[in-house]
Amino acid sequence: MATPPKGDFTSIPLNPAGKKIAEAWDPAKDEAAGNQCKAYGAPGVMRMPGRIHIEWQDDRTLKVDFDSGKQSRLISFGAPQGQGNDWQGLSTASWDQGASLIGFAFGLGGGGGARGGSLKVATTKMKAGYLRKNGIPYSADATLLEYFDRFDVPGGDPLLIVSTELTDPTYLHEPFWTSSHFKKQNDATGWNPTSCTAR
């Protein structure tokens, strides 16, 4: 996958302030400031090409590792761990027993309460970053709502579908909806953690 060109805002509901920031994007300045990971925060990393690994860190906390940018997210059932204000922010999870966005049971197993429905994850206190590697911004005031759903394909590998809503009063004139799809692997074949890049 190639980084979209500067000025490509296709499908992103940027307001004028967001467009101004995106039009001024300069990856060399990000590199000089040590901000190569601006596109690898919680709102952007799920859309990066690569693999994820999900496991229980403890009875109340899921850990999601990304080989893109060598990022890790902690998703807590109950009070989140940490102070936030980093790329991944603070994520709190609950099981949404109502109709999920996709309509399939996730069923991670392990801790975290009742199974079934969608795993709903709300993330706040994120460091300002990019939705895409071409400088499309989100602010520190943005909130991220995700629904994780597992879909068992008849005769095939299970799929994980993550439906996302990003709300940002600073740079978006309406919420931004997207989804990401992952196919389950039985081993770590292809797992290749790579560092963040600004280009």
Biggest sheet architecture: 8 strands, mixed
> What is the approximate shape?
globular
Strand content: 25-35%
For the biggest β-sheet, the strand order reads: 1-2-3-4-5-8-9-10
Secondary-structure-based class equals mainly beta
Mean pLDDT: 89
Number of helices: 3
User: How many domain regions?
Assistant: 1
Helix content: under 10%
Low-confidence stretches: 99-114
Distance between the termini: 12 Å
- How many distinct beta strands? 10
Radius of gyration: 17 Å
Query: Secondary-structure element sequence?
Result: HHHEEEEEEEEEE
Strand and helix layout:
Layout: H1 16-23, H2 27-32, H3 42-45, E1 52-58, E2 61-66, E3 72-76, E4 90-96, E5 118-124, E6 129-130, E7 137-138, E8 143-151, E9 159-167, E10 176-183
Parallel strand pairs: 3-4
Antiparallel strand pairs: 1-2, 2-3, 4-5, 5-8, 6-7, 8-9, 9-10
Describe the structure.
This protein has 199 residues and is mainly beta. The protein has helices at 16-23, 27-32, 42-45; strands at 52-58, 61-66, 72-76, 90-96, 118-124, 129-130, 137-138, 143-151, 159-167, 176-183. An 8-stranded mixed β-sheet has the order 1-2-3-4-5-8-9-10.
Short description:
With 199 residues, the protein is mainly β.
Brief descriptors of the model:
two-stranded antiparallel sheet, eight-stranded mixed beta sheet, 199 residues
